[in-house]
Structures are given as C-alpha cells and as structure tokens.
Amino acid sequence: MSVKSLKILGLCSALFIPATAPYAASSQNKDIAQLLVQGHFWYSRGRADLTEKAWKKVLLAEPNNIEALSGLEELSHYNPEDIDRNKLRLARELARQHRYEEALTAYQDAFRGKPPTSFYTAEYFETLSGTQNGWLTALEGLQELTATYPSNPRYQLALGRVNTYREKTRHTGIEQLASVAVEPGINEKIQQAAIDSWRDALLWLPNDPASKSQMKAFLEVVPDDPAVLQKIALAPAGIPAGNSEAYAILEQGKLSQAARLFKKVLKSQPDNADALAGLGITRFRQRRFASAARKLQQALKRAPGKQQDLQPLLNDARYWAKYRRAEKARKNGEYAKAERLGQALLNLRPTQVEGQLLRARIFAEQGQFYQAADAYQQILESHPRNTQAKRGLVDALIKEDPAQALALVSQYGLSEVDYQKERDKLDATRLQEQSKAETDPAVALTLLEKAHQLTPHDPWITLDLARRYQAANRQHEAHALLDTLVSNNPGDRDARYAKAIFHTEAKEWQSGLQAITKIPATLRTPDQQRLEQRLWGLSQRQQAATLMAAGADDEALLIAKSMRERSEENPELGLLYADLLLDLGQTEAGIAAADNAMDLLSSADANLNIQYASLLLKSRQLAKLKAQLLELKFNDTLD
Fold first, then answer.
1. What is the pLDDT averaged over residues 106-117?
2. How many alpha carbons lie under 13 Å from residue 454 in its C-beta half-sphere?
3. Is residue 228 part of a domain?
4. Is 568 helix (H, G, I), strand (E, B) or coil?
5. Residue 593 lies in a domain
C-alpha cells in the first residue's frame, strides 16, 4: 500500500476526539493543564462560553499563560455560524476518499474564505499535506499550532502523522507518535489512533537492521502486534553466503516463489545445507516457525560450520513456535498445557515481555487475580510504558481489590470514568460467562440482555446476544441488534467485524462479505483481512457450486479463473480454488494449486492442514497424504 493512500484514513475519528486528560509540559501545574484541556474539549464541541470560562480560570492562576491567551484571542473572533457544516462534512468525506484537492476546496468553502479556527486547523493541515505541493506548508502550520497549544494531543497527533509522510522526517514523526501513544491520561481513542499511525510509519521503514530498534520500542507497548513482528522477521537475518536465484528471490520478499526454488533444489539434493537453510529462513519470514525450526536444524546438522549464522535464527524459530503453541493452548482453555509451555518460554528467555504477558494472562483467565497482578507489576518494573501490563494490572485488581485498582487508575493516569467503564465491563463479562454456563436458554438470554444493557457498545457481547436471538428463531431481532451496533458505532471496526462473524457463522457468505468490506482494507487487522479473503472465496465457491449444479461448468470455470490470482498468496483461498478445480475434473491442476497453497500455509493452522489432507484423500494422493500426516506429527513434538 502507498503512504499517500493511508494519509488521511482515520482523520475524522481521531482529530475530533475530546481530550480527557492533560498533555502538557511537566512544568505546568496539573490543575492548569486540566483546565487547558477542558477548554480544548468545549472548543471542539462548539461551546465557546465554557471554553472561555475554563481558559479564564487558567489566567487567574497564571496570567501570562500563552496558550490560554492565544485561545481567548481566537475566541474573541469566533462565531460558530461562520462554518458551513454541510461543506465541512463534505470535506471530511472527500478526505476519507483520498480526494485531497477536492477536500481542500470544500474546507475553504466551509470556512467561507476565512482562516480556520485552531480546532479545525489540524484536520485542514493534514488534508493539505496530502495535496501535491501542500506538505511543507502543512508541516509548518502544525508546528506553529502545537507550539501555541501544547496541551492538545490532537495537534501532536496530527503533527506526528504529517512528519511520517516523508522519508526525511519519518523518524521524527515516529518519535512524536510514540510520545502521544504512551503519555498517561490521554483519551483512549486518541491513544489508539497514535498507536495505529505509529505502526503504519514503522511498516514504511526499510527492511534493514537499523529499523529494528524502533520496532522493538513499539513492541514494548504492543507486544503481540503481528504486522510489526512480521516486519522484524523480514529484516535480513543471517543469510548464508551464495548467489543462487533462490536467495535473490528471497531477498526481494517473494517468499512463496523462493520456497518453491529451494524445494526444487532439495528434490534432487536433499542434503544441500544452503537450500535447507534458505528454506528455513523463508519459513521463518512466513511465520511458519515450526517448519523453520525443522529446516534450520537439518541445515546445521549437515553443515555445523554455519552455526554462528543460523543458530540465533533457529533459537528464535523454536521460541516463537513454542509461544504460538502456548497462546493456542491458552485461547483453547488448556491452561495446564499453556502453563507448561509458558514456563518453558520463561526459562528460555526470562526477560522477553511476550512470555511474561502470557503468564499474567493465564493467571487472570483462571481467576488467580493476585498472581496476575503480581506478574503484571513485574513486567512494569522492566517495561514501565507497557500499556497492556498497565491495563492488565488494573483489570486484575478490579476483580479482587477495587479500592487498590482505583488507586492505580490515578497512578497510571487513567480516568475514573475509565475505571467505572471497567467495572461495568467486568459485571457484563461475568453475566456473559454465566450465560455461557447456563443450561436454560431463556435464562441465558436474560443474562446476556443484562450484560448488553451495561455495555451496549461492546461488539462481542452484542454478538453473543445476537447468536442467542438467532438460536431462538428471533432472526429479525438478531439482525437489528447488529445493525444498531454498527450504526451507533460507525468508527468501530470491531462492530463491523462482529457483524461479519455473525453472517459467517450463519453461512451467509455474501452478507458477511458486505459487512467486512465496510472496513477500509488499509485499516483491517490480519484476522479481519483473512476473514474478508475467506468470505470472498466462499462466496465465489458457492456461486460456482450453484452453476455446476445447473450444468453450467463453463461459467464455473470462469469463477475458478477469477479465484486463481487472489489465491496465489493466500493459503485458504488456494485450497478453495484447488477444491473447485477437483470438482471441475481438473485433478492435476487442482493438486498443483493445493501444493502451492501449502507453500504459504502455516503449520500451526490445524484446520487448513486438515483441509489440505482432505483434498489429498479426495484426489487419492495417498503418498502425499502420508507425508502430510508425518509433518503434523513433527509439529506436535515441539510441545
């Protein structure tokens, strides 16, 4: 994806969020900082009277406060009626569509030819930065804005974003976004917007060792982020010397093609250490850690002299393969297994934060909240900015010692409103858990309805309630519930994701696809992206099956051709495509497509491995089926 295509995404959801806690220089008195922030909040809501009241209080305590003086000066010329709201909405919509030149004209029309007020200046400048010659002017304007209003995190966020849009200032922008992301007391949505923009900027960095330190700093705050973890794995790491075509392809990032070339060498030279090492490195970069460990281990056995280059990568592959198994066990509720694997991870790397967080989560999910709190506190001693540990600590203590949790809310800069939300969330979660254990469907439904009343915007409780309505043959209510969730939370991607999951479970592939595609592709998480691809493939496969049942095999073949291109880098689509080819009688092409899918397939994904095995059985490829079952057995030995 291009940098420019990402520039203004999320602009309106992030720049218009009220700040609820100070973002100010440490020399400012806390009360003054809070009043400054309150002023910005009311300004964003068009309440000039309350804005003036807050900033005048600042001047009573600090008569020469530049920020309050500048704000009041602007207020003296402020008239909400000067802004054309319809034009403003149009400008924002055009910006979302990346039509920056048109958006800029709409902004100018909205302000009726006058300069925008400071609140609208941030979004105006960010839009300006997306135009052909507007970046430098936008940058200078935002620098002046943040200097005048240092208490407003929206302006800091906009400045950081704009800095990341150019290579020469990207590192500066990354530092600014990181500062907003970890600042205590920042509004949660602004903080999340900063984290998202921080992540995007890191993904634009080159794949070189110099970028690793910045990515590791991000992972201290968001340890499990798959995109950044993959970015680190894609950085050059101990590649054996050689000028083979496969290594050249590997360094171009064409991983599936490189894997095929290495496998081609190994077919005729099974003991070729360089090819084994290359395939191991490829599997690591594909995040197929178990397979990577196996190939690297084989390479070192045949060429011990490569130990200095390959042993660190082998250690990483073993660690992350074990971590993945532990996470899977935790998510499946297999806590004894998760604890055993988690302890092995801590023995391997005692200071690795991912293993520490895993242990804390296992404690919390088993109701061992004091142990979880202790584990989170240990993490914060060495990683004081880790937001997952902060929230995990407060969440664990809410369940056992609400008073202490409330004290920590202040210590970590969280608001009491956030604390109450956590309490409501806790109560709702307990009701949700009770509903799952309840054998009487009517009682379970009542419990979920109570949970939904406490947290009506929670997509997952809403999804569970919709499932209950669906099971009770109240389909209309189920659909209405999810439609309301989406309409009331238009910026919440999880709301649309939950709706897509509901349709997927109901085998309503097309409706699910419509829901998930409402999330912009550039903003989808890896799981959301996979669901979109899966729903697209299933809807195509369903159409093809309908055509074949009607005897229209030629039309079904056209669908197969449309699936081919998208399936080349997606294992699940590749297996659906292969299955369609088999049904069309193209056995050889179907098996080739399935094999290509396996070059992309994560060995940790049991469902897709089983799907591949079923295709081998369907096509009577018994030798390959035996080899596949042996591969699955090897993966189990990594436990």
1. 74
2. 20
3. no
4. coil
5. yes
